[in-house]
Amino acid sequence: MAIWALTVLVAGFYPSLVLSAFPVLESLKGLRLTSGRGRLRSVMITFQITVTAILCSIALIMLLQMRFVHTKELGYHGDQVVSIRATSVPGLAIDALGRLRHELNGETGILSMTAAACTFGPYWNRFFWEEEDGGSVEMWHNSVDVEFLETMGIHLEEGRNFDLDNPADFHSAMIVNRAFVEYWHLENPIGATIPRYFGDGVIIGVTENFHFHDLREEIEPVVIGLSREMMREADRMEIEQEHFDPSFVLVSLDAGSIPESMTLLRQTWQRVVPESAFRAEFISDIVDAQYREYYRWNRAITTSTALSLLIALFGLAGTAAMQVAKKTKEIGIRKVLGASVSQILLLLSCNTVVLVVAATVISWPVTWFIMKGWLAGGFAYRIPISPVIFVGIGVGILIMTVVVIASISYRVANSNPSLVLRDE
Predict the structure, then answer these.
(1) What is the DSSP string of 241-264?
(2) Pick from 212, 215, 236, 238: nearest CA to 223
(3) Helix, strand, or coil here: 423?
(4) Which pLDDT band, with edges at 50, 70 and 90, does 137 fall under?
(5) Which pLDDT tens digit goes with each residue over 352-405?
(6) Residues 338-354: tens digit of each pLDDT
(7) For 264-273, which contacts have Cβ atoms below 8 Å and span 24 or more sequence positions?
C-alpha cells in the first residue's frame, strides 16, 4: 500500500509540475501544451514495451513447458490407474489385493490390479552403496506383485515378466529398465547377475525407460523385484526409505467407464477391506501435484503480463494522442497538399513503431537468458526455446500498437483540413 501511494504521488507530481510552468495565455490558446522532452518519453515507452515483451515471452514459454509436461508420454498409463494406500496393518496391501481380485474377477471395468511398495511420483525407494574409493552407486527400487507391468502399461523390451509358477522369481528375479542396462554396460542383460550388489539377483527382463519420477529429473537405473529379502540382504547398502513390502494397491480401470468403476471399487473396498479407509488417487493426479508450484507461477506471470500489456496499451494510446496534438496543423497542411489517410497514419505511427520494434528486439536476449536458466534449473526434460516464440510475441505487440495508434489517429487523419487551419 505504501508503494502504491508513493507511485500515485509521483505519477501525479510530475505532470502537475510541468503544467504549472506553462504560461497561462499560451496554455489557453492551446500552445506549448505538447512541448517537452520527447527523448525521455521515448525511453520510457521503450522500457515499458520491453518489460511487456519479456513478460509475454516468459508466460508463453512457461505455458508451453507445462503443456509439454502434461502431454508427454511417460511410459505408463497413469491417467487410468488408481493408487489405493493400504498401510494401517503391515502386509495389508497383498491381502487386500487378493480379496479385491476374488470379488471383482470378471468385472469389465476393472482391467487388472497389482500391489507395489511405492506408487509413482516422489515415492520410490532410493538406495546406494558406498564404494571403497569414496564414490557411490545410486539406484531406485520397487517391490511389486506379478501384474505390475501389465497394470501400469509398462512395455517390456527384452526377456519376460514375473511368473507365479516359477519359485525362483520370488527369490532372485529382477526386472530392470534400459537406464540400468546402460549404466552397467550390459551387452546381454537377460540372465546377467551383479553379485557384488544384488547377491543372487538375476535379470529376467528389461523395460523401456519410464518416468517413475517427474520430468524435473533424469531417468535413473531402476530395479523391480518380487523379493523383499534380496534387497534387505544386499551388501553395503543404505536405504533412504525402507518401504520393502507393498503398501499400495494399483488398479487399472477401463477408460470408458471410470466413474462407474470407481464407485464399484470404493464399495467393494469398504466391504472387503474394512480395516483400512478407501484413500484413492489417480496416478496422473499424484504426478501433476508435483508441478503445483509451477502452475501457480504460470498463473501469476500470466496475470502480471495481462496487467503490463494493458498499461502498455494505455501508454501507447497516450503517446498517439500527443503525436496527434503536436502534428494536427502539419496533418492539415499535408492533406491540403494531397496526402492520403494512409500516409497520414504512417506519419503518426512510424516513430512509435520503431520504438516498439527496438523494445521487442531488446527483450529477446533478456528473455532467453532468464528462461534458459529457469528451464535448465527446473526440468531435465524441456522444450527448446524457439525463435518463433519471440517473433510471434513481437508481431503480436506490433499489431496491437498499430491498431491503438490507428484508432486514435484516424479521426484527425480523415478530418477536413479547413477545420484545422481556419485559425491560421
Answers:
(1) S---S--EEEEEE-GGGHHHHHHH
(2) 212
(3) coil
(4) confident
(5) 888 889 999 999 999 999 999 999 988 889 999 999 999 999 999 888 888 887
(6) 667 677 677 767 778 88
(7) 264/104, 264/107, 264/109, 264/110, 265/82, 265/100, 265/104, 265/110, 268/100, 268/103, 268/104, 269/84, 269/96, 269/100, 271/103, 272/96, 272/99, 272/100, 272/103, 273/86, 273/92, 273/96, 273/99, 273/100
The pLDDT mean for the chain works out to 80
Is the pLDDT at 233 greater than 80? The verdict is no
Q: Would you say 120 and 76 are in contact if contact means Cβ atoms under 8 Å apart?
A: yes
- The CB density around residue 126, as the number of other CB atoms within 10 Å, is 14
Joined together, the cell numbers standing for residue 157 give: 523390451
**Half-sphere exposure of residue 354: CA atoms within 13 angstroms, side-chain side:** 7
All cell numbers assigned to 392: 510471434
The secondary structure of 366-394 as a DSSP string is: HHHHHHHHHHHHH-SS-----HHHHHHHH
Give the pLDDT mean for 189-195. Answer: 83
List the beta bridge partners of residue 137. Answer: 129
Query: If we measure between CA atoms, which residue out of 188, 230, 257, 213 comes closest to residue 76?
Result: 213
d(CA 62, CA 69): 10
CA distance 73 to 176: 19
Q: What is the mean pLDDT of residues 38-50?
A: 80
Amino acid at 321: A
Q: Is the dihedral of CA 224, 229, 230, 232 positive or negative?
A: positive
Nearest in space to 49 (alpha carbons), one of 315, 236, 257? 315
* Burial degree of 54 (CB within 10 A; 0-12, 13-18, 19+): buried
Instruction: Name which of 179, 140, 143, 145 is nearest 161 in CA terms.
Output: 145
- Residue predicted with more confidence, 421 or 210: 210
What pTM did the predictor assign?
0.75
Cell of 339: 496526402
Residue 144, amino acid = V
